[in-house]
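Anyone able to model this chain together with EPZ?
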Amino acid sequence: MGQVEIQGSKNAVLPMIAAAVLVNGTVCLKGCPQISDIDDMIKLFEALGGRVVRKANRDIVLDGKDIHSVKVEREYAGKIRASILYLGAILGRMGEAMVAKPGGCVIGKRPIDQHIFQMKNLGYRVDEKSGEYYFYSEKRESNVTLQLPYSSVGVTENIILASVLGNQTVCVRNAAIEPEIRSLCLFLKKAGALIEGIGTSELMIHGVHRLKDVVFEVPADRIVAGTYAFAAMSTGGVIELCHVPVNELECVMKLLLRLGAILDIREDSLTIVAPKVCNRIGYVETGIYPGFPTDLQSPLLPVLCMADGNSVVCEKIFENRFGVVDELNKMGAKISVNGTKATVFGKSRLTGASVLAKELRGGAALIIAGLSARGESQVSGISYIERGYEDIVRDLRFLGADIEKITNGETF
Ligand code: EPZ
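re: yes, here you go
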């Protein structure tokens, strides 16, 4: 019960940090959440020769004037997937780049074949040696049209980052239209980039000579907002999410209504009145924007466990994103996974247990389950959760949760 302020968007900030490589001056990002993925993206920016100042008020000032390196340090490739976005940014600024194969993670293989393919279509050659890819400029057509076979978020972002500087005009068809792409384009436009079709699946990018200093307010995080909405739904709560990107949550709000919630939708706040018992959801599938976000698929599962019947959830984006089901079943959930579908048997009463987070959104799902389970739960592996949630314990306590963080035996 209560109000909570939604943090800035992790997936909007990460590509903007990479984009700062393209600015031969300073970039100030305002309202960045204090999360480890951003720390890692900043370390990479500094490894390239950039300078960063993190201010106490969540502003980050990046200075790319002295960037000299074209190599993305291998140690970051696997640690933070968004490091692949430096490929486009470094190519855009330096005309060559070296990146290591990122390797998979628990939710999927996370290949970069499409990133490589589209950089080639922009006119770059690539040599692979000992697990590293070296990209260098060959002949660059002045006009290029790229037709994406799949609307990949990261691939779309890399193409934009590789194209805003220089003298190419690049048309991207079937581009991803996630809100984070739109905010990246608005950020670059404010720095002087020439991009048409912002917010649509067809972008036209006209290379410019240079980008200028820019100050940009990062948008709120739609996935964090959705996570807390599901926390309220799993506990029959009444919460108000403040500073929330309501216009990016159409699909999530539709699902909340299907679950039986009453919503009060304002300009940038959303009040959710959860029902005593949620309705079952016959079938829901994740999809590219504006479909149901894959990042909210795991947080939805504990809500469906207590619904008044069985639900089917289909994961269509990542090939292995039901990893949290085993841990939820340890808490008394009855979820069975068959390929891309999970059947959630409703009317379960979850019981507290010691469970282990193995990735970011699955970790958030375990906390949601712990809030509604009978008795106490202990969720370990919270460093995964802190990659994307600035302080989920603080936020949920604002909403009346009985939750505390334990680090080496001490509680906070
Ligand atoms: C972004 O990842 C987000 N990460 C993910 O959020 C999010 O789940 C995903 O988009 C989908 O919305 C950031 O923005 C930093 P994709 P990205 O390229 O760009 C396959 C979170 O929890 N693919 O749209 O990696 C890929 O394997 C994270 O915050 C290829 O096959 O997503 C996946 O199955 C998790 N080859 C699908 O496309 C490629 O070259 C979607 O990937 C690239 C992708």
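The pocket of EPZ is lined by residues 10-11, 14, 81-82, 108, 110-115, 150, 152-155, 178, 180, 294-295, 317-318, 360-361, 388 (CB under 6 Å).
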